[in-house]
Amino acid sequence: MSKEEIKELILDGNRIHDIPSFYDEVNRVFMQEVGFTLGPSLDAFNDVLHGGYGAIRGNEPICLKWLHFEKNKEDLGVAATIAFYRAKLEQPETFNPEWARKKLDELECGEGQTYMDMLLEIIGEHPNIRLVV
Length: 133
What we know:
With about 130 residues, the chain is α/β, with parallel strands linked by helices. It has six helices and three strands, in the order βααβααααβ. Belongs to the barstar family. InterPro entries: Barstar, Barstar-like_sf.
């Protein structure tokens, strides 16, 4: 496959400082041509990477460049992930509190995934997307 056939998308990590700003940047990069935006959801992020709407058309090859990635590893690291799970615990009518408590406990023991880890896992599930940091 020639380089000309690979679409390049660039996440600017200087625009990302927490989970909500990550989704602001995802919407800026992936959703420009669409009449709606993604909410702050890992499922929504996964859906946009599947393509069919937004910047990705089906399984086309994508080079996803993530600028300032090391900074964002901290921005979306342990502290942000703890806040993410604590927010889930405050909404037991919407989210499973046992699940959130388990994930929070794992993270506080140094064993759980950070939000960045979860994002990287999702990106890795899409063989047509090559992440460049």
